[in-house]
Amino acid sequence: xxxxxxxxxxxxxxxxxxxxxxxxxxxxxxxxxxxxxxxxxxxxxxxxxxxxxxxxxxxxxxxxxxxxxxxxxxxxxxxxxxxxxxxxxxxxxxxxxxxxxxxxxxxxxxxxxxxxxxxxxxxxxxxxxxxxxxxxxxxxxxxxxxxxxxxxxxxxxxxxxxxxxxxxxxxxxxxxxxxxxxxx
Length: 184
Hints:
alpha+beta
């Protein structure tokens, strides 16, 4: 089952690939994760995670008609160190970000309704949906390896919008904030 917690503050010298748990530890339940960030989560238990009937059902229900697989590791991703740093820059997208973890592990950090970082550990069988308009970032764990299926509605648009005045004014951001306010 998914593990999520509030992150301790990072300094410029901290390794982003470590857990960074607060003291005292502030864990979030699945319900709290959804309530505070809008993230959706499913655990896929099938042996063949990628072709699971549950994944197919979710894809049909949510309109995810595009699919590809990405491997993020030093030997599989060109310019790995540069890419992993760019993935860790806070940003949002105008569409949902959907990841089904096939192998390895990583962290998605998502801002909650109080603008605090929630760290979500994703591992094999985790399907995580980050809402459009939510500020987030990604990093691998210390093993530097994750293989994930990326799902998307329609043609994929991988454009990240860095946090700032421009992204704060985007329709996706306004709709996300409205949805989170209504859910509170």
